[in-house]
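RECORD TYPE: protein structure
NAME: DNA mismatch repair protein MutL
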Amino acid sequence: MAILILDEQVISQIAAGEVVERPASVVKELVENALDAGATFVQIEVGAGGQRFIRVSDDGIGIPADEVKIAVMRHATSKLRTADDLSRIETLGFRGEALSSIAAVSRLLITTRHRDETMGMRIRLEGGQVLEASAVGAPAGTVVTVENLFFNMPARKKFLKSENTEKRLINQIVMNYAMAYPHVRFVLVHDGREIFRSPGSGQLADVVVKVFGLSQFKQMVEVDGEEIIRGRGGRIVVRGFVSEPDLNRKDRSRVILFVNGRAVQDNSLAYAVTQAYHTLLPKGRYPHAVLVISVPPDFVDVNVHPTKAEIRFEDANIAFSAVQRAVREVILGYARPAMTPRRE
Ligand code: ADP
Ligand code: MG
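PREDICTED:
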């Protein structure tokens, strides 16, 4: 075949496949947009594990009516202006790829009203093409509905995992964000049934109780560490809850870490948590932990991966030891049985 530049439609579909791997990734992107919009309430409704529909409603700032059509275009974002801004990202999104990617591979409906405008806007797309856009009355905030996901990507559709796998992933994503944003009220509904709700009290403890259950929560202790990054300035703050050594499991799935409001998969940090227990954990066992870590925005590079699950620290050792020290401080109390703090 001769070398030709792909047409826009194909380019969008290929790019979309990278961001929107599966229904759960749609949930992630839409929830992130709601949080970036300053929502205090985020409702996630899912039908058939996302294969029927996904709807995320928020009470955030909304999209100005004349910008809605732009929001669904590739590389359209209100969160980034210059390459320089990349070094100090404080929003969850910044690549301007989510809405356009989702639009390219689904039937998408957005109803939104910006807080400062009197009329809202409703836009309907299919396979990235705008079919309808009209002014409507709507409450301030945004409702995004995704149907027919991957209707034009049969290969992707075929490889979708079971409904239950997808539901589990979606639950995890929503619960993670509920823990990272305890002041936001989250409601998660599967097939018309509410399965999770966070109170939005601003207290991480209240959400951890909801996610882990009261009996496990009672076996967790609070972490509250903070240190200055030496020779550089700025602070690393490590807050959250970790389990007493007795509460452990055979895999690391309950070591949940957030860095600057983002759930991250970071082997080094997870290892720092486990290391903090030293010999207190039986071999091959892992603690439960929910740690909310904040670092200066320019201490971390979030632009490593399209889904941003991986991050890179300016100095990984500093992050490692800050986490280890914060956890060890509370775990030390368990080192000698005589000193084990007992709680009712
Ligand atoms: P990004 O989040 O990286 O900017 P998206 O494609 O996810 O890219 O969204 C594009 C733009 O649409 C955002 O920058 C934002 O201005 C707007 N937007 C998307 N979702 C919402 C929402 N729920 N509330 C308000 N604005 C939104
Ligand atoms: Mg986004």
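COMMENT: The chain has two domains: 8-197, 213-339.
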